[in-house]
Amino acid sequence: METLNVSVPPEAGELPMQTLYSSNGWDSYAWAFRAAYNVVDIILHNPGVAEDPACGPLIDAIAIKELFPPRYTSGNLVKNGDFEEGPLVFRNNSVGVLLPPIDDDDRSPLPGWIMESLKSVKYIDAFHYAVPQGRRAVELLAGKESAIAQVVRTEVGKSYLLSFVVGDGSNYCTGSMIVEAFAAKETVKVPYESKGTGGFKSAQLEFKAFAARTRV
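Structure tokens predicted for DUF642 domain-containing protein (216 residues):
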């Protein structure tokens, strides 16, 4: 598996690079860390052994953006539900930013959310994509291998309604798509027929909590 090692001691991580998602030969990645010191070292390391030692991955346009802890908004138990708080998207970056798999929302480049996929998910902006609400959205790549999750506070026995929007980013991806949502013991599959020109539909999932924390 081709990876790029990223570290800001004492923290370290790997960016999976075996799949190229853009058509122009470049992918942008985001990796989050919590600073342990006022001054830190940033290390990018290619651990692979290429067939040709004169060849290797190109790295360009490195930036650091401060991320703020997500907060609840009135009437919404989901933190950062509109995805507005997230990694920096360069203005000239038309391919979005890949968020690698991570199981810890404290270290997530998308505050409040866990990327529990086998593959990366893509963070996109309204300047280059069709976004139904606000300036940011998330594109679930690689079919069933792509997923995001959040643990929300609930009260046992109470009923809740999960609402979300499904669409396409006007990036010429066409065909039948399905988003499956889970909460407590309930699930819903939302089909969407994409014409690749932008569009969206609303969906809902009603569930009853059986614990003080519910994974969505």
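The chain has a mean pLDDT of 87.
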